[in-house]
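Field log, afternoon session.

UNIT: design team B
ACTIVITY: writing a sequence onto a fixed backbone
BACKBONE:
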């Protein structure tokens, strides 16, 4: 079940993306599960279709879902691969930060700023 909090400071697409990603990671949504169409989910949640499309696009870029043209969007098997890529990138980042002499707190602030810039 997806719940969008209109009073939240978090944009609706991010609330949707986060909740779907969590459900995929905890296997509430199994690999191969067909997701609702963008229009149907938008209508169900009272969101604009572009909002849902953005969440789906970001989930697809993360390897958590795949779109099969007119057949729809499905939970991808690559979610584990995406997390492994993220872990490797984090290890590489940690090595660079250590080599530059930047402390962990500053490194985390840099990552948060970079994530905020992509939102």
């Amino acid at each position: 079940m997806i719940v969008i909090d209109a009073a939240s400071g978090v944009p609706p697409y991010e609330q949707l993306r986060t909740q779907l990603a969590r459900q995929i990671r905890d296997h509430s949504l199994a690999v191969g599960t067909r997701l609702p169409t963008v229009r149907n989910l938008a209508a169900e949640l009272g969101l604009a279709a572009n909002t849902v499309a953005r969440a789906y696009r970001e989930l697809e870029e993360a390897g958590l879902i795949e779109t099969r043209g007119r057949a729809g969007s499905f939970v991808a098997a690559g979610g584990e691969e995406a997390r492994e890529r993220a872990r490797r990138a984090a290890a590489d980042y940690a090595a660079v930060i250590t080599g530059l002499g930047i402390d962990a707190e500053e490194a985390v602030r840099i990552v948060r700023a970079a994530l905020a810039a992509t939102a």
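LOG NOTE: The helical segments are 12-25, 38-45, 49-61, 79-100, 104-118.
NEXT ACTIVITY: expression trials, pending approval
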